[in-house]
Design a protein that fits this description.
single chain; 310 residues; alpha/beta; Rossmann fold; 8-stranded mixed sheet; two-stranded antiparallel ribbon; 10 helices; 12 strands; globular
Length: 310
């Protein structure tokens, strides 16, 4: 997979805690090529370790709790093909660790809580994406992650959710307005407790996202797996919405192959994408997630080509 850009192709992925940012980014990196992709989690730019945040009564969702100015500087250095000494945040222990030397790559994925919170950051990306799963679903994911995998007590997670809510509403959620694409996972109507492989997905495609010819794909998915409609976003503005039916997509393997075949892959076989950890921490597969990752890769490369042409 090659690019003709003078600088890397960069995507900014933002969403609230446990929105699925890392899971989405991991699959996207597999599609673009792990050896050609640099993934940066903006959590590494936390100003304080977990214990110090608790002592100060601040949350990582607040801009003042993060070195956003250094993040900006590093993104632009990487964009100019220069290495950086990136800070490192250890999620397991909530500690700040020694920085690491990071070199640029043809593709850069920047994912985290506040990656769209400044104009300078927004200007650095070729595609800006906001993950907006249904709130009850995201909270179930957070409980699964923090209690099942992180070892937190239920009471601690409940306390954290209440503490984060205010700053999430003030600083994380408003970034949705700046995204070119909003990706919304939600349970099917007949199973509101579903949180894994059968989730429906809506891709809200705003006019700032360069158009992509989806006619052939929609025709191939005419068996209900895919549908496109013109609708209005939460701000009342008209947008295109591409819907993936989780139940119908479960058998839509041909769509996955079709999307992969249309990417400049250099003959690579389709990698293991659509992977996530279920409530037992076992690896599981979701075809709606895989299709979403492939679609985002198409939009990312198409946006890069359009901007290069301009």
């Amino acid at each position: 997979m090659t690019t003709t850009r003078d600088h890397p192709v960069i995507i900014g992925i933002v969403g609230d805690s446990a929105a699925g940012k890392t899971t989405l980014a991991e699959g996207l990196a597999q599609i673009l090529g792990p050896e050609r992709t640099l993934s940066i989690c903006t959590d590494d730019y936390h100003r304080f370790a977990r214990r110090e945040r608790a002592q100060r009564g601040v949350t990582p969702h607040h801009p003042d709790c993060n070195y956003l100015d250094i993040l900006e500087q590093h993104i632009y250095l990487l964009r100019d093909a220069q290495p950086v000494l990136k800070p490192v945040y250890d999620h397991d222990g909530g500690r700040l660790k020694a920085p690491e030397y990071v070199e640029p790559a043809p593709f850069i994925i920047v994912e985290g809580l506040l990656g769209l919170s400044t104009q300078r950051l927004r200007d650095a990306y070729d595609v800006k994406l906001y993950l907006d799963p249904q709130t009850p679903l995201r909270l179930r994911w957070k409980f699964q992650r923090d209690i099942g995998f992180g070892g937190y007590a239920v009471e601690d997670v409940m306390t954290a959710i209440e503490a984060l809510k205010r700053d999430s509403e003030r600083f994380v959620a408003p970034q949705r307005a700046y995204a070119d694409m909003v990706v919304c996972f939600c349970p099917p109507d007949d199973d509101p407790e579903e949180s894994g492989s059968r989730l429906d997905v809506r891709h809200i495609l705003r006019p700032t996202l360069p158009s992509l010819d989806l006619a052939g794909l929609l025709e191939a998915g005419a068996g209900r797996a895919l549908a496109m409609e013109l609708t209005r976003d939460i701000d009342g503005m008209p947008v295109d919405a591409l819907d993936i039916d989780g139940e119908a997509a479960a058998g839509a393997e041909t769509l996955e192959g079709l999307l992969w075949s249309r990417l400049p892959t250099g003959g690579r076989p389709l990698p293991r994408i659509g992977r996530y950890r279920d409530h037992t921490h076992a690896e599981a597969f979701s075809r709606p997630l895989a299709l979403s990752q492939l679609l985002i890769a198409h939009y990312l490369l198409n946006a890069a080509q359009v901007q290069h042409a301009e």
